[in-house]
Design the sequence.
């Protein structure tokens, strides 16, 4: 069997070279006689893996010593709670751009006071709200930088007074970030970073001082910051994989190169959508995501045929989320150009058929 | 290079056959064209993996429909908080048998009232307390079934009135359990179950009713029970590995066979310790662990030589925890007999040298 092109929204495609490297080391990592999965998290070989993975991500993003880098678990969904628990939410402002920011806001309201500073809910989240109503003295402002379900993306982070907290689960490492605009960035790994099971948190060290001592130990960012993310056993193998992905991104030319490639791939797909009456893009053009290309068919009864014929060509994972329906092509960092070209070719043929 | 014998306390040795199977499927799982790491957690191939892994563990342990099986993250350390958050701790009784139960008790005291119902702290945790002072109306009684640092283990679970909660991180699936005695069992995966990054929780369904609605969503057991542990993206690859390990245990003959093998391996090591004045076992004989064999050298200045000569023979991970010092040989399920035989041969030679 050959590898398929995996357009799934996540867990998502990983670079083939990364999986090959992991495979070669699975039983015996660099002559240690143990696989990475079997190594003590306090032994030198693994500690170097974790340190290097963190250093690579810091370098790619330009996160200097003002930042703490934490390897956690529980996904973005756990961060929805940890952020207000640690930073306070009295109140906190949320830009509501879809399901994930709605969930984050709901969690803040369990733990403090979360406010919607803007929302595109009225138009089924087809755009990024530009006019924000921010609260005076907000503990933080929260955005979801890319919205997997609706296919929208902030072109750049808003400039706000309160610390900007960003759920970057679905576009981290896909483009350079102006780190000066952020206070905290978190991301589940399973789209651009690596496999599911590890959550990356970058937090300005000054914000760590806010964490109340009364928090459960594992939910306090300080616990993990003080112990270099080894207070307890971290998810060692997923972290190793993230390190390999970061190395692969370096080899591709870093985040500027990833951004060019992602933009070019997205452009090909949106051009195809715009060229055919059959395809109706969901997002407003200005806010189109470079990670998730979401569209409906003008003849929705042909959706089943679209998906079936795509699958015959090994173009997988294209079914849209039930909130929008239609088709979703997720083209994270690891999607090869050939996959996008194959999808565009198929879409042109299908529209003409 | 050949594989080493890994006596590390965790993340620990995994069966070679399991790693070989994972390796063969890393780029293309059973002809799907995707590796397990890259699959949607809502797609059929992965959902079958998770379901089968759970079914195998249920069958091995004899956990029937009265039990809910949850795949979580955050390790036992997160369960230290989730247990009292969900079950209440007004008060809760803890049997204190070492560092891990001390940490669990401390967490209960952050969230409610935890009481030490017994402790062997006065003798540096060299035994399991037999006389327990249990509280009337306790929310639960908590034990740590095996103590990795001190090398002690409950031979069987105590019979108590309140629901028995067991941190079985370091001996789960090493022997049959009388499930009737338990209310909740949790375990980080990285010793007997699989790689770090997934936490197994077995909870009686009736106890799920205790979870307060005010809890953060991800910290509420009900959230995960209602969604078959797919409320958010579970740690898919670690769960896949746990399923392979469970299949391997079945092929070994199940938990009764594992118990015989583990007991025989432990017996060989304790017999060697008892045969030489050089080796001083830490645990009282009646409470000796079948998972972690902990001993000091009567001539502590020879410890460095012991560890160095062992490493030359590819016997790795033998350094004891700083709380006890000396040597710790962890012999979890996946340790082959040949590894124990090699260690015993070395210990005999070293004692005679």
Sequence:
């Amino acid at each position: 069997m050959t590898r398929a092109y995996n357009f799934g929204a996540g867990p998502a495609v990983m670079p083939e070279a990364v999986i090959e490297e992991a495979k070669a080391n699975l039983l015996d990592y660099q002559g240690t006689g143990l696989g990475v999965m079997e190594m003590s998290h306090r032994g030198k070989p693994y500690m170097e893996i974790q340190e290097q993975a963190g250093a690579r991500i810091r370098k790619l993003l330009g996160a200097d010593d003002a930042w703490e880098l934490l390897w956690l678990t529980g996904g973005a969904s756990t961060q929805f709670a940890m952020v207000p628990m640690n930073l306070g939410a009295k109140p906190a402002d949320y830009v509501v751009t879809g399901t994930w920011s709605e969930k984050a806001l709901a969690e803040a309201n369990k733990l403090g006071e979360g406010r919607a500073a803007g929302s595109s809910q009225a138009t089924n989240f087809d755009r990024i709200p530009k006019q924000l109503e921010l609260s005076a003295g907000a503990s933080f402002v929260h955005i979801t930088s890319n919205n997997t379900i609706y296919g929208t993306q902030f072109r750049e982070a808003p400039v706000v007074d309160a610390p900007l907290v960003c759920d970057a689960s679905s576009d981290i490492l896909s483009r350079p970030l102006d780190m000066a605009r952020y206070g905290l960035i978190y991301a589940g790994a399973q789209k651009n970073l690596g496999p599911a099971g590890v959550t990356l948190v970058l937090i300005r060290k000054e914000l760590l001082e806010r964490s109340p001592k009364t928090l459960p130990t594992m939910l306090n960012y300080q616990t993990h910051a003080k112990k270099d993310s080894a207070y307890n056993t971290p998810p060692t193998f997923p972290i190793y994989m993230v390190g390999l992905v970061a190395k692969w991104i370096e080899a591709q030319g870093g985040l500027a190169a990833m951004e060019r490639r992602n933009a070019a791939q997205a452009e090909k797909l949106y051009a195809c959508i715009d060229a055919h009456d059959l395809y109706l893009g969901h997002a407003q053009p200005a806010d189109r995501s470079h990670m998730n290309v979401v569209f409906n068919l003008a003849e929705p009864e042909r959706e089943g045929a679209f998906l079936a014929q795509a699958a015959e060509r090994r173009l997988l994972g294209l079914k849209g989320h039930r909130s929008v329906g239609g088709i979703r092509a997720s083209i994270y960092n690891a999607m090869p150009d050939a996959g996008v070209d194959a999808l565009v070719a198929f879409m042109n043929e299908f529209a003409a058929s």
Chain B touches chain A through 69 residues (CB under 8 Å).
